[in-house]
From TrEMBL:
The keyword Mitochondrion does not apply. GO terms for molecular function: structural molecule activity. Coiled coil: none annotated. Pfam families: Flagellin_C (PF00700), Flagellin_N (PF00669). One of its GO terms (biological process) is bacterial-type flagellum-dependent cell motility. The gene is flgL. Residues 10-139 form the Flagellin N-terminal domain. Belongs to the bacterial flagellin family. Gene3D superfamilies: f41 fragment of flagellin, N-terminal domain (1.20.1330.10). Keywords: Bacterial flagellum, Cell projection, Cilium, Flagellum, Plasmid. This is Flagellar hook-associated protein 3. GO terms for cellular component: bacterial-type flagellum hook. InterPro entries: Flagell_FlgL, Flagellin, Flagellin_C, Flagellin_N.
Length: 291
């Protein structure tokens, strides 16, 4: 086959165009820091990057749920601590009221403080976070304790609130008022009635109920603490998994800069060599001079 001058030019231009396209792809990988800019660049790698990206988003949602649960439990623990302090003060008052030397007026003053403590505990039981009541069970839009009754009436339920903290793994985040706070309010109400009756024997008999309510309150706090510890361990595990997932996604989709720069230099060298070779191959012919 006879090779013409035009064929040489066409071949040169075709090769130069291909070389420039390869240089452009490598340049884009370097400047964007992404090895894959379109699925056709690497179909398998693209599928891997998409799968790992989805996994990272899922882990991020679990982490958000863990933080939400932790906040709820921290606020619950603070409220229970405040209630515990009020209950401890109530016990001190009941011990004081049981003293046979106190007068009826003295016990009336203690009754008034016990009444204030009872209201304070119920008010604490009505703590809310982001418009949702902590101790109302699943009735988070309902104020759990009705302060217009004596003792305050519980209007929540016993349902547990849960958060998904991993695939197929949930954790209870709430303490219901009927298990932790109602016994406290009941014990204080009974102690108030005994103080109001000015009966030292009856007053002393209420200490056991107060201690039992305190034990139940401490059990609720211990449960909260155990769940907080579990959340902390889960958060650390999720953070490790998130870091590993992002690293794998980076390895699959990000540019290896050293390798890319080496390839770009090679393509650039090839392009320059092709230009030089082409310049020699398509020198003006004798006919061009005769025209």
């Amino acid at each position: 086959m006879r090779v013409t001058h035009g064929m040489l030019v066409d071949t040169l231009l075709k090769n130069l165009s291909g070389n420039l396209a390869r240089m452009e792809r490598v340049y884009q990988q370097i400047t964007s820091a992404r090895r894959i800019s379109r699925p056709s660049d690497d179909p398998v790698g693209t599928a891997t990057v998409l799968r790992l990206g989805s996994a990272a988003q899922e882990i991020e949602q679990y982490l958000a749920n863990v933080e939400q649960a932790r906040t709820w439990l921290d606020l619950t623990d603070q409220a229970l601590t405040t209630i515990g302090q009020s209950l401890q003060r109530a016990r001190e008052l009941v011990v004081q009221a049981a003293n046979d030397t106190l007068s009826a007026d003295d016990r009336q003053a203690i009754w008034q403080e016990l009444t204030a403590l009872q209201e304070q505990i119920a008010t604490t039981g009505n703590y809310a976070h982001a418009g949702r009541y902590l101790f109302a069970g699943s009735l988070t839009q309902t104020e759990p304790f009705d302060l217009s009754t004596d003792p305050p009436t519980y209007r929540g339920n016993s349902d547990q609130l849960q958060r998904l903290i991993d695939r197929g793994v949930t954790i209870d985040i709430n303490v219901t008022g009927d298990t932790a706070i109602v016994p406290v309010l009941t014990a204080i109400k009974q102690a108030r009635d005994a103080v109001a009756a000015n009966d030292p024997v009856a007053i002393r008999s209420q200490l056991a109920a107060i201690d039992a309510a305190h034990t139940q309150l401490l059990a609720a706090q211990a449960s909260v603490g155990a769940r907080v510890n579990r959340l902390e361990a889960q958060r650390d595990r999720l953070l490790d998994a998130h870091t590993s997932t992002l690293r794998l996604a980076s390895e699959a989709g990000d540019t290896d800069m050293a390798e890319a720069i080496t390839r770009f230099s090679k393509e650039e060298l090839t392009y320059r060599a092709a230009l030089q070779a082409g310049a020699r191959a398509i020198q003006p012919t004798l006919l061009d001079y005769l025209r």
